[in-house]
Amino acid sequence: MMMKRITSTITLFIVVIQLVVSQNHVDALRYSATTFGGTARYMAMSGSFGALGADFSTLSSNPGGIGLYKKSEFSFTPAFYLGETRSTYNGSVSRDNKSNFNISNVGFVFASEPNEKSIVRNWQFAIGMNRLNNFNNRMIMQGFNSENSIIDTYVEFADGVHYENIENDPFGEYAYDLNLAWDTYAIDTIQGTMDQYFGAIPPGGGIIQRKDIETWGSMNEFLLSFGTNVGDRLYLGASFAFPFVRYFERSTYAETDEENVVPEFKSIYVFEDLKTKGTGFNMKFGMILRATNFLRLGGSIHSPTWFNMKDYWNTEMVTEFNNHESFSSYSPYGSYQYDLETPWRAMGSVAVVLWRFMLINAEYEYVDYSISRLRSRDYNFIEENDAVRSKYSEGHNIRLGTELRFGHFAIRGGFAYYGSPFAENENGERINDGEKLYYSGGFGFRDKNFFVDLAYVRSETNQDYYLYGSENISVNPVKNEHFTNNVLLTLGFRY
To answer: What is the pTM of this model?
Structure first.
């Protein structure tokens, strides 16, 4: 091949801890932007239950709802989930999806016998789990780019850096993947220089670009909750929550010269794997006031979640050329442990109960995503936390739900609007969309000692994705439309 090397590539693995791009503002938002989850009744009403209570899911939103339990209860909720994505890049449209079965809720509530002669009517204790996020998704982003290539960013990052420093940089101190681009001849030094570079694809692009991303995993929350009923007027509760995260991401980025317009070059592939595991702790406090026989008011506050996270990652790059030469290079398997603090949350709700025939609940949630923080003992995260402050903003979420009862049967419906977590730019426009809409419905059957509920929830959100970029090189965004479909069935027993 026509590319040259001044010396052979000798990769020296330096045993030091280096930070890579996997811990950044994207992670802060991913684990801060929780949604509603739990029982089918709660989900059928789009999580709008803050002033109603007596449902296990409320222990993750307004734990004051535990105070309305007068009988002990066990609930179990299996679910089927389908995530879909429609992607549009430079006029090309692609679709993909991913599904899974999961447990959305399992919980036990113990309620003491009511004492009508005491101001404290009874007390409650609960233990169990609710699902807060489902990360299962698969998407394909593909289109023709006639302007630039990801290799152009490698050239920009490399310029001015001595090639030996790139050779000895397996963890990407100068730029992520730069060492792999050097090893696979995606970039090389201009003849007669040691720190000036050219790429395997000349400036101007002319290639097909594609990125496949598959994600899976979940965020669940283990709960210990306590509550009490004061005079059948005021219901108080507290939850001590232990969320745990399992997030997996596998992606393949490819550029191919299908039209044979780039001299010598045939293709470049970048394979990346990321695994994140984490556990955390938070506290939630809530109350419900029965202002009148038909009006209830609810409120709750959530502390930040203090997560301890650990990432594992690795990357492979493969290049192919028209002379049948092929090169591959692997990054070392990396791992890094860090802490994440998510924002405080506050919720307020109002419910109307009409003749035991109709329930209507409206709920507002406030959360400021810009105050999430990444921390570590051996790295300051200054740039990453600055990005959190500048890219994200306050979120305003609204949930509405209703239930109609016909004897032992009930019909439910709900709607939720989750405001964009992204900040506005200097023109007063959102730097990304990110608003999310939920539509839900379901029905149920309840008698004295048994209940069964069925729910369907669909969400829709739009969010741009950029395949790559640098200070001087940019690509058109991929317009992604994300949809989720969730079917849940709850079985419950009272005694």
So the answer is: 0.90
